[in-house]
Amino acid sequence: MTETILSPMSLLAELTHRCPLQCPYCSNPLALEPRRNELSTQEWISVLDQAAEMGVLQVHFSGGEPMSRPDLPDLIRHAVGLGLYTNLITSGVLLNEKTFPMLVEAGLDHVQLSFQDIDTANAEHVGGMKGAQARKLEAARLVAADGMPLTLNFVIYRENAARVPQMLDAAVEMGARRVEIAHTQYYGWGLANREALMPTAQQLEQTTQAVEAAREKYAGRLTIDYVTPDYYADRPKPCMGGWGRRFINISPSGRVLPCHAAETIPNVAFPDVRHDTLAHIWRDSPLFTMFRGTDWMPQPCRSCDQREKDWGGCRCQALALAGDARATDPVCSRAPDHERVVRVLETLPAEPPPFRYRRYVRATDEVG
Amino acid sequence: MITGLTGDSVIRFARGVRLQHDRVRERWIIQAPERAFIPDPVAAEVLKLVDGTRTLGQIVAELATRFAAPVDVIGRDVHVMVSDLITRQVLVA
Ligand code: SF4
Ligand code: SF4
């Protein structure tokens, strides 16, 4: 059987791994890309042209901190000119009254602004940057005052889980239309810090209740997207809507990936835009075809009625938890390796270990 | 139903929302923050007429002519649809 190849809908452009913050839950890979390897403005423009040609409708400028790139307004303007819907995923610490008007003028459609916590002291402890919270609040104020749609993103982990009600109240006060209450996803640095970040089952239940209460309280004023840690679920998420079906991720150096964690997959070449066209990579590269559709699936997925709903879950999670990217996602209660997820949750330490902060390995890569 | 929505209300897209033709998939889509959705064919006809200057009444009149249908019938349907899209933060009046 040959799999139908759909056109991608959405492009995540990770412009840089540079970021003034050091969040221990960051989904970036442990090996951060130094600045000298980053794609040039011209190379990103070609990526945007190719993506629009292929049918991509939305581009998410992300990182690292995408505002570390001075050419961000030019890239936004180019994307807007191609009819792409532009979204900026930012920590907000570089968004101020000098930089924001340039993004408005370029035609940016939407800002997604992330917070480490609503409690300033803990937020700055987790982000590793003094003064960050005041800058973020100012960023939110500027976006709301302009009228550009604003989504706030709160990443939830053990230390801040109890404060979800305050986060949601604050989101309304800040003038956000949407808020994401997103439990940490355990990839990259998040995986390295799993024991320090993973909430207890009871904490998870409390955050769920807080979200439900706020959905009622703020009905019609605030849309709340709620993302749970799938370690506690019985069924995996349809990761990226299926491997190579809707989504393209471009790393700062131009690697083309089916998801942001895919660089962990062993024994496969990573295609990149410096050596091949996006369309060819999407259609034919081994990385994109290896888990596309259902042909690759082992049992129990192969004969499961959910196989075209969750696409067997997440390959990177299968790799992280079962040691095999081809395995059924161990989050699934039907997976042979499901025990491993149960064990992780049962053996969470009573006292969280200290964070391993997101940092470049070599100090010389960091600056700029 | 949104109260205060009348034939004289000027209808616009909410900031950050737009109707766009998806050339590759040959269909219309509504682009909005964190989501894109496909309008049904009738909604697409209505939304194509939303340009920030037309009133609800003008949109209805235009559709009535185009589809050779009675204004009151079309008017009721369009009013309901536009109300719904306002609640969903797609349109503002
Ligand atoms: S998660 Fe934190 S460290 Fe990672 S890119 Fe976002 S703000 Fe920077
Ligand atoms: S067995 Fe596979 S396809 Fe079935 S629910 Fe579990 S992960 Fe999904």
TrEMBL record, chain A:
Its EC number is 1.21.98.4. Its cofactor is [4Fe-4S] cluster. Coiled coil: none annotated. It is an enzyme of class 1 (oxidoreductase). InterPro entries: 4Fe4S-binding_SPASM_dom, Aldolase_TIM, Elp3/MiaA/NifB-like_rSAM, MoaA_NifB_PqqE_Fe-S-bd_CS, PQQ_synth_PqqE_bac, PqqE-like, Radical_SAM_PqqE_MftC-like, rSAM. Keywords: 4Fe-4S, Iron, Iron-sulfur, Metal-binding, Oxidoreductase, PQQ biosynthesis, S-adenosyl-L-methionine. It catalyses: [PQQ precursor protein] + S-adenosyl-L-methionine = E-Y cross-linked-[PQQ precursor protein] + 5'-deoxyadenosine + L-methionine + H(+). Signal peptide: none annotated. Belongs to the radical SAM superfamily. PqqE family. This is PqqA peptide cyclase. The lineage of its organism: Bacteria, Pseudomonadati, Pseudomonadota, Alphaproteobacteria, Acetobacterales.
Automatic annotation (TrEMBL), chain B:
Pfam families: PqqD (PF05402). Monomer. Interacts with PqqE. It comes from Komagataeibacter diospyri. One of its GO terms (molecular function) is quinone binding. One of its GO terms (biological process) is pyrroloquinoline quinone biosynthetic process. Pathway: Cofactor biosynthesis; pyrroloquinoline quinone biosynthesis. The lineage of its organism: Bacteria, Pseudomonadati, Pseudomonadota, Alphaproteobacteria, Acetobacterales. This is Pyrroloquinoline quinone biosynthesis protein PqqD. Keywords: PQQ biosynthesis. It comes from the Bacteria. NCBIfam families: PQQ_PqqD (TIGR03859).
